[in-house]
Structure formats: structure tokens, C-alpha cells
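**Backbone description:**
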Amino acid sequence: MPKKIVVKVTWSTRKPLQMASFAKDTALDMTGNPVTPTPPVIPADVKAAADLVIINYANRKNGALAKTNSDDAITALDLVLHQNSDYVSTESAGDSAKIESTGYMATVNSHSPAVRPGTPASPDLKPMGGGRVKSTVAKVLGAEEYTHIFYTDSASVITVTETQIVVSSATGGSFIFATGGLVEEASGLTAQTSVSTCVVAHNAAGNSNASAVVKSGVL
């Protein structure tokens, strides 16, 4: 008999900022979701716990207390994600689509091998000022995380295989890879330039194809 489909724990092995980004995605997807009307940790508190990880992780090298605060914030966020994942597993009653509607990943049935995610839609780019740009992409069914590729040479060639992403530029353009959730930012970019961006989705089976490329306005 196949095992019951429940939430798959994918966040505990991620880097802290990736875990925080994942948590924010679940907070967004669980807001107003009929599958999860009364989660043990409400979306606003999930987001607050994720923000605490981001703040404390950035300060972790400022002494022993700062390192402890960072570790404690990460542990607390992990607990929050586990509490809500147990609730999602119960409320979804083995329906993988319901699980994935909450931002969590479903376990893969032993008779249904994982497949690579589909191609993401074109990302939405927003210049943020100060040499920053934000990329937002729609969720891809089956994706566990996303890589947003920012680059300044619009003629760059991006090659995506099942396991690799290769970017090359004949003019020496710069590249930034931001891996995490549906929304990622690039910073430190040169003012008065434009940036091209595409997104690749990932899961245990490998990479998706790259999305269509979108070009930002002048930063």
C-alpha cells in the first residue's frame, strides 16, 4: 500500500536565508487559504520569525551573543515551520495539491517518481533604487526553490541542464545568482544600467528550463 502523502521536510537542510525565504512563501500562500483556516502559527507570526532570522543572521559575526541570537532564531523558525507543516499534513488529508497550495512540498509517493518542475513564467522586475532590483516569479508546481539570475550583458548566453546553470558573456558582463524563494533581490549593481533576469526552478529531480528573459528599466 502506498504511503500517505504528507508534507516533505525540505527546509531544515537549507541555508538560513533560504529557510527564511521559504517560510515567507508559506506565510503568503497560507494567508486566506481555505485548506489552512486556523494554522497553529498565523502567517504574520511566520513572517516575523523569518525576518528575525534575516536580521540576526546578518549580525551573527558581531560576538558570541550575536551568534547565539542567530542560532536561536533559526531554531525557532524551524519549529514554526514544523508546527505548521504538521497541521497542513492533517488538513490536506493526503491531497498533494492541497499541500502544495500552502507553499509546502508534498512527499513523493513511492510509485510516483519526482519529475523536474515546469518552466517558470516570466519574472516581474522592479528597480528599487540604490543599485538594487527585485525579481518576483509565480509559483511552479513541484518546485522546491528558485534561482533568479541577474545579468548586465543582455547578449549573455544562459544554458540550463538537469543539474547545472551556466552563464557566459562575450563582453565580461556581471552576474548575480539569488537562490531561494519566489521573490529575490540583487544589489550592488551599477546605477544608470539595465538588468536582464530569468528564473530557474528546482526540486530533487533537477532544474527546470529557464524562464523567458525580462529586462528592467534603468536602475
User: Anything to note?
Assistant: The longest strand covers residues 196-203.
